Amino acid sequence: MDASLLSIQPSAAEPLYRQITGQIRRLVAGGVLRPGDTLPSVRDVAGLHAINPMTVSKAYSQLEAEGVLLRLRGKGMVVADLAAPPDLAARWTLIDPALDALARQARELELPADALLARLKTRLTEDPQ
Q: Which residues belong to CATH 1.10.10.10 in the chain?
């Protein structure tokens, strides 16, 4: 995995370590990161995103405690070999909080649902680069 695959937003309300853990969980659940894939070092992630290395270390440690990552001596952190890939329901539970927040914000801003869905569809089909 390349450290640039993570999108860290220092100005966001969500703590940085939670941004990292959430993104890695989604990358694993979506199959972008597979068992045995090596994660970038704490220093690489911290340096690229100009954040404190302890923040990255905290995120990696939390994912290790959850069984998502595995620390291999001499290799660093790798994606753990899960017994079964996450099913569709498990992947939905990872995105539901963001959908709830989006729906709440759209209601607060009185945005029409059809326009919101059209923008979301556009974002889903755009190249992330």
A: 3-79
